């Protein structure tokens, strides 16, 4: 298996159990109330009891630091994914509490030099499609833009990835690509994943 798989936007208990059975590397839960996949009042024990081999990941957007730290404890999160304008100093505070994944929206105007200050403050970058809604757009960005990324920090690739992108993923020859993050292209409705389609995708990804 070359890449880890992160399945994001989970919120329905029975569906969470089905996705856990697929054994992805990461399962993402969105704590941003503005998202259609906001976890709402999901029982914390459902997330706390996810096997340790799968990293339960909380996705936050410009949240108060103390709120994030509290969620790490309450839900026993193994990683946090930050999708807003969080500073490097903000990220650094969280680094001892969970893996820190800092997301950036990528388009033709993105300046990869802005990542310099985050190098020591995060564990991974996540490159998503630039949208006003902090991800979940179902749209891919031009992966050719990754040629402008000159840092050594490993990254997650996100943004509208589905079955149709498998051939393109196979063509990427970048050892820094650590994980593939999927969400809306595998949904029957917001937050409800098609586990049959996910299983097919994971089996193919494992062979890349």
TrEMBL record:
The organism's place on the tree of life at top rank: Bacteria
PANTHER family with a match to the protein in the record: N-(5'-PHOSPHORIBOSYL)ANTHRANILATE ISOMERASE
Official protein name in the record: N-(5'-phosphoribosyl)anthranilate isomerase
Keyword Isomerase carried by entry: yes
Lineage: Bacteria, Pseudomonadati, Bacteroidota, Sphingobacteriia, Sphingobacteriales
Family assignment from sequence similarity: Belongs to the TrpF family.
Keywords: Amino-acid biosynthesis, Aromatic amino acid biosynthesis, Isomerase, Tryptophan biosynthesis
Organism, as annotated: Pedobacter cryoconitis
GO molecular function, one term: phosphoribosylanthranilate isomerase activity
CDD domains, A to Z: PRAI
Metal-binding in keyword set: no
GO biological process: L-tryptophan biosynthetic process
N-(5'phosphoribosyl) anthranilate isomerase (PRAI) domain residues: 6-203
Pathway in which this enzyme or protein is active: Amino-acid biosynthesis; L-tryptophan biosynthesis; L-tryptophan from chorismate: step 3/5
């Amino acid at each position: 298996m070359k890449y880890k798989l992160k399945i994001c936007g989970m919120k329905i208990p029975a569906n969470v159990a089905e996705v856990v059975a697929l054994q992805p590397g990461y399962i993402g839960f969105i704590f941003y109330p503005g998202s259609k996949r906001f976890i709402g009042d999901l029982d914390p024990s459902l997330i706390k009891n996810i096997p340790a081999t799968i990293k339960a990941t909380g996705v936050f957007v410009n949240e108060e630091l103390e709120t994030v730290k509290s969620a790490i404890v309450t839900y026993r999160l193994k990683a946090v994914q930050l999708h807003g304008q969080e500073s490097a100093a903000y990220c650094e505070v969280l680094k001892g509490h969970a893996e820190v994944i800092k997301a950036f929206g990528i388009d033709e105007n993105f300046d990869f030099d802005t990542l310099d200050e985050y190098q020591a403050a995060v564990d991974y970058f996540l490159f998503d499609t630039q949208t006003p809604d902090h991800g979940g757009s179902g749209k891919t960005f031009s992966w050719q833009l990754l040629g402008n990324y000159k840092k050594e920090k490993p990254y997650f690739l996100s943004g509208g990835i589905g079955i149709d992108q498998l051939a393109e993923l196979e063509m990427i020859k970048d050892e820094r690509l650590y994980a593939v993050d999927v969400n809306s292209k595998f949904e029957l409705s917001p937050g409800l994943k098609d586990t049959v389609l996910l299983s097919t995708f994971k089996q193919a990804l494992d062979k890349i």
